[in-house]
Every structure is written in C-alpha cells, then in structure tokens.
Design a protein that fits this description.
single chain, 6 helices
C-alpha cells in the first residue's frame, strides 16, 4: 500500500544576474506577476496572459504565491499540456479476455490533459526547483525569460534568465578542492536513422582534455544521442564523419562517448572561477551524465555533486465514495514547506548566503 508520500529532489539554482541589473530574480518575477493587463487586472489574476505557446506545447504558471510581507519569496508551478492531446485508456472489464482494447480518449470539454507539473521557489537570486518528467530547470529558464521580457521591462531584451547550479560534494565525502576530473557523457543510445535538422542544444565547454570513444556492451549509464553526436561532430569535423563512425560500430555494441575535464595544478585549491564556468555550462546536463573523480576515486556518479535537498512530499488524495485514493500529484503546500526547509538548511550549513 502506498504511504501517500513521494521522495523528491529539490535542485538548487542561482540566477546569474547580468551586469548593471539592479533587481533580483524574485523582484522581477513579482513585478511581472503584478503587471497590469486586460484593463488593469494584474497578470497573476489572468492565467491566459501567462500562457506561453511553443508549437503544440503550452506552458503557464498556474499556482502562484507571493510572500513579500512575510518570509520574502515567490513560489509557484509550471503546467505543461498539448491542446487536444489524447490519453490512452485500457478497458479491463473482462478478466477472462486474452487481451484488452486500448483506445485514445479526448479530455472533457474545456479541459486539457496535463503532461507534467514542476514547482519552484525563488528568494532573492536563489531558486529551488522540483523537476518533473518533462519539465526541467532549462524549461524554467526559458519560461521565465519569456515572462520577464514580455510581461515586465525589468530584464531587458538583450538578457536571458540563466540559473546556474552549484557544485557541492560534501554529500559524498569530499571537498571542492579535491576535484581532479569531471566526466561528462556515457553510453549513447542507438542513433536515429537520419539526423534531425535541428539537434537539441546542449551546453558544452570550450576545452576538453580527453575524449574516449569505443564499442562497449553496457556500463549502466546512458546519454542522449543528440549529446553524443554534438561531441563527435566537433571532434570529427561534421555529421557525415559521425555517420561513417557509427557504421563501424558493431550491431551488438553501444558507443561510449565521454568528455574528461581534468584539473592539473600545483596550487592547493582549484580556481573558483573555473568551477563557476563549469557549473554554468553544465547546469542543464542530466544528473546521469555527470560524474566526478576526486582524491580517492570516483564519486558523484548520480549527479550528487550538485547542491540539492532530498525531501518527502505528501501526495494529493481524492475520495471515491468512502474510499480515499492516493494520486500522483504533489501537494503544493507541502512542496512549499520543503523548499523553505531547503533554503534554511543551506543557509545554516553555509552552502549559500542570505
């Protein structure tokens, strides 16, 4: 039986404030949500004014809470849906059936099926993000950039919202000064039959110390083909050479593509500027594609090098007659509690400053 709670990870990010920008991210989001639209009604009171359309995908802040007069933060979510999306449904009425019919159903009138929901809390320039299956920190960056440029004049058209991660390997028994190498990548999943015309953009670094490509059956870690192709295209001189390489990979093998960024210095500590550049450049790379080698061996293979806070969140329930059914949606009030807890813990431990 389900406990009615779900273990989640709260990811820490920090707004990279552009030069000469006087406002914090919290202040800019609050300004945008208070912006007058539709005859003077504030943006926070009109969800359609917060709806961002990107092809068939639609994103908007649904829940929003402003605690300016109390703890001083803004909190909300982002919903993701596609208009007219059909939901698959299996009919299980006949227990003796060899198979069951599967059909696709429309959402009820004036409703849409929700693909995903993510949560965020912003205090000053600190951001705390609860990612979902289809909504990551990069999606929050894109949405906030759109919101602050179109619904407020505080950001400026020449700027974007960048939410950098922060390295912290205390959780796995090390210190930042112990980092000797950062490994990016893993086993590439089988490539598509042809290249997409617009590959997924992946942040990379300017210089790498080593790249390893070899046939490998399985290492337990996978990376997207778009990531692997981008690395290989840079090294081999174009997609045509990548295609030629892939033809040489045995059909029963997978391609291991890794970038090793090594630190070789006589100094006792690694330059904080170099780490900051990596924190920003690698901020949107999935945790499964980030590994760290420090003194004593490899650590952080699950992305735990990034500052984060683990929490248990209550799930929303509904009643079916006298039966209580535990759903899959997170309770926003409990998410807010956990993000405030994450902020307080990081401040108390000296991980971030108020």
């Amino acid at each position: 039986m389900s406990s009615g709670r779900k273990n989640i990870t709260i990811h820490y990010r920090k707004f990279v404030r552009p030069d000469r920008l006087r406002f914090s991210l919290e202040e800019m989001v609050r300004s945008a949500m208070d912006y007058p639209v539709d005859g003077g009604i504030q943006l926070k009171h009109r969800y359609m004014e917060r709806l961002r359309e990107e092809g068939a995908d639609n994103y908007f802040i649904n829940l929003y809470q402003d605690s300016a007069e109390q703890l001083g933060f803004v909190f909300g979510d982002i919903l993701h849906f596609s208009k007219g999306h059909l939901q698959a449904l299996a009919k299980t009425a006949d227990p003796q059936a060899q198979s069951v019919p599967v059909q696709q159903l429309k959402a009820p009138e004036q409703s849409e099926y929700v693909h995903s929901q993510m949560f965020w809390m912003i205090k000053d320039d600190h951001a705390f993000v609860v990612q979902s299956m289809s909504l990551k920190s990069a999606d929050l960056e894109n949405y906030l950039s759109w919101l602050l440029k179109t619904k407020s004049t505080t950001l400026g058209s020449e700027n974007t919202v960048t939410l950098t991660s922060k390295f912290d390997i205390d959780d796995v028994g090390g210190e930042l000064a112990d980092i000797q190498e950062i490994v990016i990548g893993g086993v590439a999943t089988p490539p598509p039959l042809k290249f997409e015309t617009e590959p997924t953009a992946v942040e990379t670094v300017d210089k790498v110390s080593e790249v390893t490509t070899h046939g490998q059956i399985d290492t337990g870690r996978t990376t997207g083909w778009a990531t692997a192709r981008k690395i290989l295209a840079e090294l081999l001189g174009g997609d045509a050479n990548v295609a030629s390489l892939m033809q040489s990979v045995p059909p029963d093998a997978e391609l291991d593509v890794q970038v090793h960024i090594g630190f070789k210095t006589k100094k006792r500590k690694i330059d904080r500027v170099a780490l900051t550049q990596l924190e920003t450049g690698l901020r949107n790379l999935p945790d499964s594609q980030l590994q760290v080698r420090a003194k004593g061996g490899k650590i952080g293979s699950d992305g735990s090098i990034r500052l984060h806070h683990n929490a248990s969140i209550r799930l929303i329930t509904s009643m079916d007659g006298n039966n209580e059914i535990i759903g899959s949606l997170l309770d926003p009030a409990d998410v807010l509690r956990a993000t405030i807890e994450a902020y307080s813990t990081f401040v108390a431990n000296g991980k971030i400053t108020e």
